[in-house]
Amino acid sequence: MVNPLLGVVFHWIGGLASASFYVPYRGVRSWSWEVFWLTGGVFSWIVAPWLFASLQTQDLLGVLGGASPSTWFWCVFFGILWGFGGLTFGLTLRFLGISLGTAVALGLTAAFGTLIPPLVSGEFFTSLLPSTGGQIVLAGVFIALAGIAIVGMAGHAKERHQAAGDAPGSRPRDFRRGMAVAVFSGIMSSCFAYGLAAGEPIRQATLAAGTDPLSQGLPVLCIVLLGGFATNALWCGYLIARNRSAGQFVGGAAHDDGKVAEYQTMNSTSRPRKSPLARNYLLSALGGTIWYFQFFFYTMGESQMGAYGFSSWTLHMASIIIFATLWGLALKEWRGAGRRARTLLSTGLAVLIGSTAVIGWGNALSAGSL
């Protein structure tokens, strides 16, 4: 018996993990971005998925070994495409700013990742539109997209208000290029949802092997995240070779300005320092594992959403934005944002929270649990 309301709770926990994973990385010192990202990624995309799938599922190797080559191909393929979305997300933030860039990219990811699967399968017209529960779910999806747009407007208003004095060193935005990159990033990032859908035969096989329904999505994550690892590892490997930063893995000297070098090379004019290896590895492993937990709980939530499991993707995106915004408030990123920006932010968060309730309600009606 599925429980969509419990599914919403799982999605909220996953959203909290996604919004929080970067916090440990803030404590990494004297490592360039490509070094700590790849280190954490090994835990995100390899160690944690296989560890938890081994612990939570039955006959993991047998289930994955019995999957068809076609299933493996599509899961890995969509994982690779999703990896491109994650890498270009950083460029989106560079060109559009954090708030507007996040809203545009995640809004497109939510729209494509939620609506395309039922359209392709035909479920959109055969079971979604004709039923009351399906109509409510669809309304909740559009409410979530509206909430994402409002949060984006709040972020744009904040940036304009904070930059009203033309602060020295502020970087001009490239709106056209930023929108093009945001569209690419949003579409590619939505491919993760397609990879999970392609793994449906693996879900059925692991259930047949006796796996608890809550954990049925964990074996699929092992394959999809292999594709994501391939994309990120190749890019990080290129940066490591270009920036000659491989020595940092074993304590080689690095230039450190006291902060983690995010999406940029090391400052060659800063003072070289050796990295605190144990601390950096521990924090990177922690950040990478927390990142994985977003999808650990996502698959649990999806298993409880009933007939309209595709709505899980919108719940995931909405939860990420809610908790990421709360982190921004806690870290005082909205200080001096202005009344209009804060009003829009409060409205957007209320709409997003409401959308999760509406989607959960629609799924519960469809599952007959209400």
Q: What would a concise description of this structure say?
A:
The protein is mostly helical and 370 residues long. The protein is built from 15 helices and 2 strands.
What portion of residues is helical?
Answer: over 70%
How many extended strands? 2
Total DSSP helices: 15
| pLDDT < 50 runs, ≥5 residues | 166-172, 256-270
What's the story with the biggest beta sheet? 2 strands, antiparallel
Share of residues in strands: under 5%
Q: Reading side by side through the largest sheet, how are the strands ordered?
A: 1-2
The string of secondary-structure elements, in order, is HHHHHHHHHHHHEEHHH
Distance between the termini: 13 Å
Silhouette: globular
- The helix/strand class is mainly alpha
The average pLDDT value, as a whole number, equals 83
Number of domains: 1
Radius of gyration, in Å, reads: 21 Å
Organism: Pacificimonas flava
GO molecular function: rhamnose transmembrane transporter activity; symporter activity
Pfam families: RhaT
GO cellular component, one term: membrane
Itemize the secondary structure elements and their pairings.
Layout: H1 4-20, H2 22-25, H3 33-56, H4 60-65, H5 69-96, H6 98-121, H7 123-128, H8 132-162, H9 175-189, H10 191-198, H11 200-208, H12 218-243, E1 253-255, E2 272-274, H13 277-303, H14 312-330, H15 339-367
Antiparallel strand pairs: 1-2
Helix pairs in contact: 1-13, 1-14, 1-15, 3-12, 3-13, 5-6, 5-9, 5-10, 5-12, 6-8, 6-9, 6-10, 6-14, 8-14, 8-15, 14-15
Describe the structure.
The chain has a two-stranded antiparallel sheet. The chain has 15 helices and two strands. It has one domain. Mean pLDDT is 83; it is low at 166-172 and 256-270. The protein has helices at residues 4-20, 22-25, 33-56, 60-65, 69-96, 98-121, 123-128, 132-162, 175-189, 191-198, 200-208, 218-243, 277-303, 312-330, 339-367; strands at residues 253-255, 272-274. With 370 residues, it is mainly alpha-helical. Helix 1 runs antiparallel to helix 13, helix 1 (4-20) packs antiparallel against helix 15 (339-367) and helix 3 (33-56) packs across helix 13. This is L-rhamnose-proton symporter. One of its GO terms (cellular component) is membrane. InterPro entries: L-rhamnose-proton_sym_RhaT.
